[in-house]
Amino acid sequence: MKDIAEQEVIDIGDLDIDGFNAFALEQGWGDGMPLYPPTEAKVAQFVDTVRGDNRPFAPVPPRQIVPTVQALAANAVMAGCKPEYFPVVTAALRGLLDPDYNLHGNLATTHSCAPMVMVSGPARQDLKINFGSNCFGQGWQANATIGRAVGLILLNVAGAKPGEMDRSTQGNPAKYTFCFGENEEENPWTPYHVQRGFALTDSVVTVMSGEGPHNLNDHGSTTGDGLLTTFAGSMATPGANTIYGKGPCFVIIGPEHAATLARDGYTIESIRDELFKRSRVHASRISKENQETYISTGHKPDGDWFAIARSPQDIHVTVAGGPGKHSAFIPSFGGTTVASVRIAR
Amino acid sequence: MRIFNPTFGLSAAGGETMALKPVNWKSDAIALFSNSKPNARELLDGIRSKLGAFRPVENINFVAKNSASQPAPKDLIEEVAAKYRGALLAIAD
Fold first, then answer.
1. For A239-248, how does the pLDDT look when each residue is reduced to its tens digit (9 = 90+)?
2. Nearest residue of chain A to residue B5 (CA atoms)
3. CB distance from B14 to chain A under 8 Å?
């Protein structure tokens, strides 16, 4: 008889929901919160939603197995997804499998990174993905369970067991779930997925290996210039991986801040340029030892200043959230890329 | 109740195994492979010194990848496989 790990379908007898959860946790399948049983009938409902997307998945590192759609669906079921969320989950996985995303490095690192999952286009409305007030927070089934499904896939398919393959020193609440929508309706500029070359009518999922959101609070500034001073000053942090200057980051601007910036004539491009110039970290804020480490690994300063990105294009800008004078900075792991994938619907 | 296994997958092509001759740690050429994190070289230096207590160290060499956050290039892995019988990896911090 095969070990449980080698069986595609497992007969667990007449276990009730509590019994199933005890069994699943014993197998190491869980994130610590209750799970739904991935029954054959439930998994079949999910698989039906991705019939139009027959491309095989690449082997998922670090475990290097090729997942079946049923195994992916089992994770989405366990996470509490509705079947119609599943194409978002599979598109997110395709993004994570972009070789430049460097999934192995992201999962094995001591850094706290977790996949940031951002959804653009009509799927936000159709699936009720929150892109307004509290978009990074609780209360929305789609946000909570799509992000959770991605996390369970990384645990169960990729093999990123905490303390074993996942060597994160402290972890990050975003490892449970981190999914939100772009607020295109209050974006005075081009929606993010259109910036990336997709059609406005496409639904697109974008993933980045990020930290949790760092709040950018500015209630006082009434000009775009003032806001960018606050944003850049907060991004200029010597303790984030972005100081290595070799990876992307996101600046998610709240709608009220976005309106102020647009009123003062700022575009996505000029915001990126200004933030790149102003967010450099002065050497006086970095220990001598760290400076030596950065320089020895090719991260050379410009005079006395260390850039937080390779170029303005590494600073990705869009709009999300609701009323209020807050925005967010999301630094990345560093050795990674931002991947955007059209959702097959 | 029958459920789908959330960990199930197929082995990737090319995952075949081969029989290897055991490494003789007392004499074979060994690579000390750094992940390029701070202090990795110091750690491997210490291991080389410890090995020197019971074997020659002329054929124990240091190898490093370019970035701590990126995988080692395929060429580098193949070079290590061709030149050495064993490798000790410095991982994490």
1. 988 887 679 9
2. A8
3. no
